[in-house]
Design brief:
The protein has 103 residues and is α+β, with helices and mostly antiparallel strands. It has 4 helices and 5 strands, in the order βαααββββα. The protein has a single domain, classed as 2-Layer Sandwich (YaeB-like fold). The chain has a 5-stranded mixed beta sheet, with helices on both faces.
Protein backbone atom coordinates (compact mmCIF):
# COMPACT_ATOMS: atom_id res chain seq x y z
CA UNK A 1 0.00 0.00 0.00
CA UNK A 2 1.25 3.49 -0.81
CA UNK A 3 1.90 5.90 2.06
CA UNK A 4 1.40 9.62 1.46
CA UNK A 5 2.49 12.16 4.07
CA UNK A 6 0.34 15.26 3.68
CA UNK A 7 1.72 18.78 4.12
CA UNK A 8 0.36 19.31 7.65
CA UNK A 9 2.02 16.09 8.78
CA UNK A 10 5.30 17.10 7.12
CA UNK A 11 5.15 20.40 8.94
CA UNK A 12 4.49 18.57 12.22
CA UNK A 13 7.51 16.32 11.64
CA UNK A 14 9.79 19.29 10.90
CA UNK A 15 8.55 21.08 14.02
CA UNK A 16 9.34 17.99 16.10
CA UNK A 17 12.76 17.64 14.50
CA UNK A 18 13.63 21.27 15.33
CA UNK A 19 12.43 20.81 18.93
CA UNK A 20 14.58 17.73 19.53
CA UNK A 21 17.60 19.12 17.66
CA UNK A 22 17.59 22.08 20.07
CA UNK A 23 17.80 19.59 22.95
CA UNK A 24 20.82 17.65 21.62
CA UNK A 25 22.78 17.51 18.38
CA UNK A 26 21.60 14.60 16.24
CA UNK A 27 18.44 13.98 18.28
CA UNK A 28 16.31 15.67 15.60
CA UNK A 29 17.58 13.23 12.98
CA UNK A 30 16.92 10.33 15.36
CA UNK A 31 13.37 11.65 15.83
CA UNK A 32 12.78 11.69 12.05
CA UNK A 33 14.29 8.21 11.62
CA UNK A 34 12.18 6.82 14.46
CA UNK A 35 8.90 8.38 13.28
CA UNK A 36 9.66 7.33 9.70
CA UNK A 37 9.99 3.72 10.87
CA UNK A 38 6.69 4.02 12.75
CA UNK A 39 4.98 5.43 9.66
CA UNK A 40 6.52 2.74 7.47
CA UNK A 41 5.03 0.09 9.79
CA UNK A 42 1.62 1.25 8.56
CA UNK A 43 2.24 -0.78 5.38
CA UNK A 44 1.62 -3.83 7.56
CA UNK A 45 -0.58 -2.54 10.38
CA UNK A 46 -2.73 0.19 8.78
CA UNK A 47 -6.29 0.21 10.02
CA UNK A 48 -5.80 -1.70 13.28
CA UNK A 49 -5.26 1.36 15.48
CA UNK A 50 -8.00 2.99 17.53
CA UNK A 51 -9.99 5.76 15.87
CA UNK A 52 -10.10 9.33 17.07
CA UNK A 53 -12.51 11.49 15.13
CA UNK A 54 -12.18 10.07 11.62
CA UNK A 55 -8.48 9.18 11.98
CA UNK A 56 -6.67 6.05 13.05
CA UNK A 57 -4.09 6.85 15.73
CA UNK A 58 -0.68 5.16 15.86
CA UNK A 59 1.37 5.94 18.96
CA UNK A 60 5.07 6.31 18.19
CA UNK A 61 7.39 3.82 19.88
CA UNK A 62 10.24 6.09 21.03
CA UNK A 63 8.79 9.59 21.24
CA UNK A 64 5.58 10.95 22.79
CA UNK A 65 3.93 11.51 19.40
CA UNK A 66 0.83 10.19 17.68
CA UNK A 67 0.47 9.62 13.95
CA UNK A 68 -3.06 10.33 12.71
CA UNK A 69 -3.86 8.69 9.40
CA UNK A 70 -6.66 7.53 7.13
CA UNK A 71 -6.86 4.54 4.83
CA UNK A 72 -8.65 5.64 1.66
CA UNK A 73 -8.83 4.05 -1.77
CA UNK A 74 -5.94 1.68 -1.14
CA UNK A 75 -3.70 4.46 0.14
CA UNK A 76 -2.49 5.44 3.61
CA UNK A 77 -2.70 9.20 4.13
CA UNK A 78 -0.72 10.49 7.10
CA UNK A 79 -2.63 13.63 8.04
CA UNK A 80 -1.02 14.80 11.30
CA UNK A 81 1.90 13.87 13.57
CA UNK A 82 1.18 15.49 16.93
CA UNK A 83 2.96 15.76 20.27
CA UNK A 84 0.95 13.86 22.91
CA UNK A 85 2.21 16.21 25.65
CA UNK A 86 0.35 19.22 24.30
CA UNK A 87 -2.96 20.49 25.60
CA UNK A 88 -5.76 18.16 24.39
CA UNK A 89 -7.71 21.19 23.15
CA UNK A 90 -4.80 22.02 20.84
CA UNK A 91 -4.82 18.43 19.56
CA UNK A 92 -8.57 18.66 18.87
CA UNK A 93 -8.08 21.89 16.95
CA UNK A 94 -5.26 20.37 14.92
CA UNK A 95 -7.40 17.37 14.04
CA UNK A 96 -10.26 19.66 13.03
CA UNK A 97 -8.07 21.20 10.31
CA UNK A 98 -8.96 19.35 7.15
CA UNK A 99 -5.80 18.19 5.34
CA UNK A 100 -5.45 19.03 1.68
CA UNK A 101 -6.15 15.68 0.03
CA UNK A 102 -4.93 16.86 -3.40
CA UNK A 103 -1.30 16.85 -2.26
Amino acid sequence: MKIRILSLASRDLLRGKRFYEQRAAGLGDYFIDSLSADIESLRIFAGIHRKIRSYHCLLAKRFPYAVYYRVEQGEIKVCRVLDCRQNPIKTERALAEEPNVKE
